[in-house]
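WARN retry 2 of 3 for item q-0093 after timeout on previous attempt; input resubmitted unchanged.
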Amino acid sequence: EESLILVDSDDREVGFLERSSCHDGVGVLHRAFSLFVFNEDGELLVQQRAPGKRLWPSYWSNSCCSHPRRGESMESAVGRRLEEELQLQIPLRYLYKFEYSASFRDRGAEHELCSVYRGVTGQEPVINRAEIASWRWVAPDRLTTQLDTVPERFTPWFMMEWQRLRRDFPAALSLPRFASSRR
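OK item q-0093 returned
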């Protein structure tokens, strides 16, 4: 099992722990990332998590999310996971970092210091069925309506991240500026 990077609230490494142990109980704070991939029409790629996931199985979430492994840089992890889950290789731009925790029934919890990235692609993804049950492109306004009307269908980190993107990073949702960005 892969070892994740434990951190304090200031993102200083404090140790390593197996992934499943990081998500036991109330969770142990560790590094993570979330990706928001848009198409050239400004629609966001959202994915439905595989039903075999321990936490939030079959819930809808952002384009891709995961963790850097022990000894792996964030940039390497982001590129690796984007290719593993969606078979995409695109430039991504870092937006912000935040800490959150969320419990899922009696199965465990997330407690992450999560770096949020976004990018644009002109390609359709090819999904990894072990990780993703389904996917779709959705317009930002339609997504906001869905998050407001049926929040129980979405992962908690996705809802927090989308709210902050709309509030603090509106330019990230504007395609002309968005498409020209680089890492």
